[in-house]
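Listing S7. Sequence submitted for prediction.
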Amino acid sequence: MRSIGDLDFVIRAIVGAVLAALLLSTVTMMMQSVRDRTRELAMLKAIGYTSSRIVNLVLAEAILIFLAAAALGLSTIAGVLLTEHLALLRQYGLAVSAGVTLYVGASNLVPELQDRPGVRIPLSFVAGCGLYFAARSLASL
């Protein structure tokens, strides 16, 4: 029984370390965001915004990012919990996840896809789904 208690401590320590790392990465991201937009923030100051209003704008952005990340995390948890109960999600859930991942990666990380509207970004979603189905069919051989 003593070893089970030690395992509980190890799991809590790992979760604590992960949460600390997430906190530090969030702080780093917000600091970099403010550094990158020094000119824009200076322009707001020049047109009459008070320092407290600018801080409130930056905090509002941080809260909005937090809420979006929390919504994505909660929807991921809901998807994992519902996978067992919905046959359609069990069959196609990973394919849609792969497609969404490729879509987000292509639309946010590849500058060439950001500048040109059209069918490239939706095609990246379809390609992600197709790659998943191809990998699944190769794995079943």
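Caption to Listing S7: primary sequence and predicted structure tokens for the chain studied. The chain is about 90% helix and 0% strand. The two ends are 44 Å apart (CA to CA).
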